[in-house]
Amino acid sequence: MNWVSRKNLNCWVAPLATTVIFLTPLIFLIPYATSYGSYKRPLATLILDLCKFGTSTHQNAALDYSYCLLVPPIVVYLIYLKKDEIAALPIKGSTGAGLAMLFLGIFVYWFGIRAEMQYYGYAAIQIFLAAIVIWFWGWAVFRKLLFPWGFFLFAWPMPFLDPIIALPLRLIMSEMAYRILNLVGIPCLQNGTGLLSAPDAAAGLLIGQRFHIDIADPCSGIRSLFALLMFSALFAYLFVPKFWQQWTLFLCAFPLAILGNLCRVLLLVFGCILFGNAFALGTDDEPSAYHEGCGFVVYGVALGVEFLLAELMTRYATRPKTTAMEKPLSA
Asked: pTM of the predicted model, to two decimals?
């Protein structure tokens, strides 16, 4: 069945064109307020600013939301994978529910402008997408597109989560690193979120002379957490068969982000001991190449463990049980 033909032109192309025309000014043209400054810009520009591609003076040093730009093409690809299943569904739009959600989205969008909070704008666009699918194509199509619609939530930068999540993660990270370093025989002191080498009178070393690392927000795991959550959701949806296995992989992104960043912090400590602080850390303005390279360890460790967990679950948890009748008879 063709995705677009003369027969179903009004069913697909016209609604899609209407959707693009409706959403373009809301996302790209209408100035929207933000809670992080007095300037007003369209939602698209605000997102680019947080993804470090904008021209605004607002920059969040702790967070990098550049992964958000990957979400729209991924969603398009996910819909493409479902095209045959969607084409086989009955097209039965729900005008009442669709219009109700559309007016709800308009109210949320307006409220966000008045409240000077771009997160309401994100929520409004998310509501608009659901409303349009339900209005034009019905609940059956929306259920088929439920995961791509939910996955689109990763397109919205959420810097307000920084103070909520980053500080607890920093404390957890510093506590774990402190205990592990002392366990492996590297005397270490903890000062808040900072790690300092213990003084050594015999060697003439003062406190913090061998290494002095403050676990800042980027090292807390929050920078990698959201990207890992996005990847975990996509990986689980595409390659893991059972629902409980998908949720297990998705939720594992939280401890795996901590594990990956813990390995990164330990490598920085070892680098300071072996090569000095200048080589291992650099400065706040110009981190060293070693410091930047250790950042890739987070994803290497987290994704490696995630792939292993997925392999174990799909190999053993989905293996059919052998009944007594199926067991081979002994000679």
From this structure: 0.82
